[in-house]
Every structure is written in structure tokens, then in C-alpha cells.
Design goal:
Blueprint: H1 16-35, E1 39-40, E2 46-47, E3 61-63, E4 69-72, H2 77-88, E5 94-103, E6 107-117, H3 121-134, E7 141-145, H4 148-156, H5 160-164, H6 173-178, H7 192-202, E8 209-211, E9 222-231, E10 234-244, E11 247-255, H8 256-260
Parallel strand pairs: 1-5, 7-8
Antiparallel strand pairs: 2-4, 3-4, 5-6, 6-11, 7-9, 9-10, 10-11
Helix pairs in contact: 1-3, 4-7
Length: 265
Amino acid sequence: MIFAHDIPDGGKLYFGKKAKIKREIEHIASEVFENEEYEEIVTPFFSYHQLEALDEKELIRCSDKENRTLALRGDSSIDVIRLVIKRLKSEAKKWFYIQPVFRAPSTEVYQIGAEWLEGDLKQVLNTNLNILKRVNKNYPLVISHIKIPEIVSKISGVSIDDIKKQRIYKFNDWMKKLLVFDKNSKPEEFPQEIRIYLEEMLEFADFDAVFEPLYVANLRYYDGVFYRIINKNDIIAKGGSYTVEGVKSVGFSIYTDNLLKDVNG
């Protein structure tokens, strides 16, 4: 039996102290964005193009009045960039949003996010870290590159699944060295095909970060360096570079609910 007050699995309810803390975090983020000259945007709950960002099985789908397929917003980044370029035709490059996304079968994911058309990922990462600093949180930062695992798989013959699950007994010597890659590592010690991407990762050596070149990400649109900020088994935030409508952009999302788990009032 389903009672009138039951909340579906994956649904969110905020009240009292927790609701206040959530609002305070969002207010802090808004202040940081405004100080860094970001414009705010709130995108529609429904979208025609979510398959560009997510796998079909992750989407909550329905139809419009002409029976065209819609999905509840499962990701904000691509919609933000496309709406700014195609609909708003705004000269502003830096945008932020505070809104939920929805994943099948019934999960709400609250996010604080930013997108910067033709922007700089290092500066975006600094903005991300600044927000966390303002809520007195400091978490491990992990830098990866979306292209490296695929190329490593191709030139080594080790499957992506084996790389993802780190079946180290199948790794050759230089792959094992990638597992301990750090800011002092030398790209020239690795195959030519991945050196440029390792060099791109090392551009973030001035951050206090862990490097994971072999991390396999389930991300459809990141096309270069990306990062994760983690706390135990939770992703607090992630960001990276991508191209939409021919425009190279960068952005990040903070996962509000994961942050709330670790914030005391």
C-alpha cells in the first residue's frame, strides 16, 4: 500500500535545520558566482536533447503534445550552453544555476553548477574550490583525462573493462607506472600516443591533487581533462571541458546532497 505521505525512492525532502543549511550553501555559491561575474540561468525541467549527455536508461521520458520524445532534465550543461548560444544569443560567457536534475526511475539530484563558454578549466576549478572553502570544506581533488583510458586500451590490448576494474595482472610495465603517476612524472616515459594528454593533466600540478590517468568515466560529453572532488565514496563535485555547438566550454557541478551529508549546522 502507498500512503498519501509516502515519498518515492530517490525523492528528496528538506525541512528545518537541513533546509536552512541547504539554503545557506546555495546563498554562498550565489555570492561567489556573482563576485566572479556569472549570470544566473534556470533551464526548463523538460528537454529534447538529453541523450547527448546521458544514456537512455538514465532518463525519465515522456512526450510533448505532438508525441515527440521529451525527458526530464537529467543534465544541465549542454542545455545551458545551447540555450545561451541559440536562444538567448547573449554575449555573456559565464553562467551558473542552482537546480535539480532527474534520473530514472525516480531520483532527484540537486546541483550547484557553472558553465563558461570558451573558458579556462583551471579558473573554473578555482571557483569550485572557493565555494567549498566558503563552507569550510576541503576534500581530495582527483585529475583525469577522458581520452587516456581509451587510447591505452587500444595500444595495449587491455580491455576498457579490465582497465576500469584495475585488473593489474593484465597491465604491462608502463600501465602500472600510470597507476602511480604524479606531478613529478615525465610524460616522455610513456607511449607517444598519450604524452600530450598527460601533459594536459600536468597543467594542474599547482593544485593539491591526485592524478588518475586510467580512471574510466561514464561521461558522454567531456572531451579532455576532467576532475572529481570526493569524500569517501561520494562525489562532492566534478567538472571538465567539453564542446557544444562547436564552442569549447568548461563547467562543474556540486552535488548538494552529498555535500549536505558532511555539513553540520
